[in-house]
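ESCALATION

Customer reports they have been waiting on this structure for their group meeting. Please prioritize. Original submission:
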Amino acid sequence: MSLRRVASRVIRWQIGIGLSATALWAVASGVEAGLAALVGTGISVFMTFYVAMRWGLKSAGAQEPRAILGAFYGAVTMKLLLGTALIFIAVYAFRENAGALVITLSLTLAAYGLVLLGDID
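Update from on-call: job pushed to the front of the queue and completed.
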């Protein structure tokens, strides 16, 4: 399965999990908690999209495994830096509902496992 198909599957799962969690947070704790959960979903989806795009573009013409792996490490490193900054900013903005944001973001990371359990050959 191509990188594009795997990434789109992960993103679809993340959106599905995130929107479900957003609805639960909104019903259980109010609109602001739902908005915080939605932002957590957005951060998770953005990070996945970023790695897929950057790695795909950097390794598109590469033939050597070392170059492909180097592009992947570079993309993941930048993802971690960007993700950390976005999470800090979002937690600061949603101080009262930081739990909803962080828990929803964490739940969306299960999408990687769900896709890997599926057929990716």
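Sent to customer with the following note: The mean pLDDT is 91.
Escalation resolved.
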